């Protein structure tokens, strides 16, 4: 339960004690920001700043050199901007672009949850960065921390009407579950009006918030590009005659684990029932409350909803939920997911509008000697009057382009050579890597900086095998936290140490099955040697339409994973 006696609190994790003493997420953040003697925050504030969307990091490439020079680490901050459902306006894009070039590393990082991150913000620039983000009518509160995070929703421009309805629920869920404390406005926006009407109540979360992060996704079948089953809570849209009637509810997904600790594992959510759309917020709120009351507050490695459900059972969970709702979820309705990737290039939507999906390698928007991606997108934003849609595969959709504006966008895509990537293989276009080095403090191996060169080598094998057009889902992460959803890759890599990865095979093409460990702790040479025969055999022996993930199970390379608890067995 969330209220804790001081005896209880002693048993709980350190983060629980920090939350308890934080006065609704205020802590000593103001003092930390004003301390000129260090580029860092006080340690307890580094936990609280996450709830405000801010991670303290240091440049890991510089760590050794700074240590040698007896300097403190090169502290800097990552700021995560919430973009519910991934939709923002061109003027918001221009603002984020400007802020990135003013106060951060001049790059925007699109994330696997349709948010965007700015890296390299120095402590002295944090306040203006956050204030300017808010001035653009975006925010960072609850982008991280033990609360509900950015709510994702597949952008599905080719099903615009249904998507619009589902997007509306995405927005409402995001607002409904946002923290109510006025700490954010007081600290970052100097909002005196808010300070005088200080808000200290958290009607949904209570003063200890949740035991751990909480994630919600909404999906519009047949697309599962949000990987709905990787979320604590999922709402799969059920429609009749293209109008939304309600949602199938899924609960208990999460992908993180710790190497060598088999009681931590990735788990896919169970579909537990159907709710009419009018009840969506109530269902979400009660599930959040169950997790608030029953989630593990002692061991943070065991604190996600997936463990609450596995420990007590799905039937207990359904009973508890129905009890709290005062009515029961219906039986789940039939639905079919067909894919979890993005559709590149132009797609026609409704009302004479068009949408262009652009491949962004690993979500990194930056100008390089070879490609002025950031500049090109800025120029597009200046003339675009539709929207931008961030996908959960780290790509970008230039959305709602009118037919007469299409040639203008085409000309800019051409000028900045942004569409060149469409000539890449199906493996290339379906690969994702998490951030990892140099900013992520938890990285054990390279990911974003390494995947492109590995892909160039794998592409040679892919072309030899004649698999250029075969979409194969490949995911790489620099550690087992799974930020690029590596346990859902038909080919998954999880970093173990510099240059060494575990290789997993056999996830489902539309996000319906976890993969399984195939080889442990291997280097690049071994990766290529291991994958080459499997890919060639797939090319020669697959049945029409057979997916790589299914093939490697059928041919015995790995066993099928049926539940999270099976993952390590
Ligand atoms: Fe993540 C922690 C980056 C999506 C599971 N994640 C981190 C941190 C903040 C590292 C840290 O705690 O110090 C990473 C910051 C790196 C950096 O330098 O920017 C980080 N996670 C990311 C992003 C940016 C990866 C990307 O390449 O796009 C994604 C941001 C999403 C967003 O906008 O909110 C991101 N993280 C995910 C996902 C995928 C998803 O949600 O669909 C997962 C797996 C699903 C899940 O939550 O189980 C994920 N991140 C984690 C975990 C493991 C959580 C667990 O339950 O075990 C951690 C570590 C933690 O929380 O202790 C983590
Ligand atoms: Fe960092 Fe690990 Fe997440 Fe990659 S998977 S961003 S290395 S926490």
Automatic annotation (TrEMBL):
Example GO BP: hydrogen sulfide biosynthetic process
Keyword Oxidoreductase part of the UniProt annotation: yes
Cofactor stoichiometry and binding remark: Binds 1 [4Fe-4S] cluster per subunit. Binds 1 siroheme per subunit.
Domain Nitrite/Sulfite reductase ferredoxin-like: 72-135, 352-415
Catalytic activity entry: hydrogen sulfide + 3 NADP(+) + 3 H2O = sulfite + 3 NADPH + 4 H(+)
Positions of [4Fe-4S] cluster binding: 434, 440, 479, 483
Function: Component of the sulfite reductase complex that catalyzes the 6-electron reduction of sulfite to sulfide. This is one of several activities required for the biosynthesis of L-cysteine from sulfate.
Name of the molecule in the record: Sulfite reductase [NADPH] hemoprotein beta-component
Native source organism of the sequence: Candidatus Methylobacter favarea
Top-level taxonomy: Bacteria, Pseudomonadati, Pseudomonadota, Gammaproteobacteria, Methylococcales
Gene that encodes it: cysI
